Each structure stands twice: as C-alpha cells, then as structure tokens.
Amino acid sequence: MEEFKAEIKKYQDTIKKITLKTPYEMRMSMFLVECSTLNEELIKICNKLIKMICAKIHNYVFTELQHNVMTSVRAMQAKFLDKADTSSKLV
Hints:
Mean pLDDT: 84
Distance between the termini: 42 Å
Shape: rod-shaped
Oligomer: single chain
Number of helices: 3
Radius of gyration: 26 Å
Number of strands: 2
Largest sheet: 2 strands, antiparallel
Strand order of the largest sheet: 1-2
Strand content: 5-15%
C-alpha cells in the first residue's frame, strides 16, 4: 500500500511542479513555444495515472483481499459458534 501512496505522491508533486515552475510560453530564436497546452496535457497524463493507480488499489482491495477477510471472519464465527461438548472445554 505504501508503494501506491508513494507513486501517487510522485505524480501529485509533478503536477505541482508543472503548475508552479513551468512557463506559459518560451521564446526560442524565431519561435514562440506556447507551453500552456503542453502543461495541461502533462497534468492530464499525471491525473490519468493517479486514477489508474486508485482503480488498481480498489480492485486489489475488493477482489484479492476480500477472500482473505471473508475467510478470517468465517473462522472467527466458527470459533464463537463452537459449542463445548465436554466439561473440560467449558473451563
């Protein structure tokens, strides 16, 4: 889970850097490069990656972990429902 958090933070930090540090336009010799469209596209890509990671986390929790949780709950239920058939089990 920590790996997912670290990856999401990395993309969020990238979005902040793009927003705060990247210029909206750059003059290069005879060209004017407008960076706002590029910045928006990079931010969209980062947001898309964050959403993909969140979807994977959701799938992992609700498909793979669900089985383990249900097995543990059933084992606890069985333990509580287990009735003592001898006096030694009562003590």
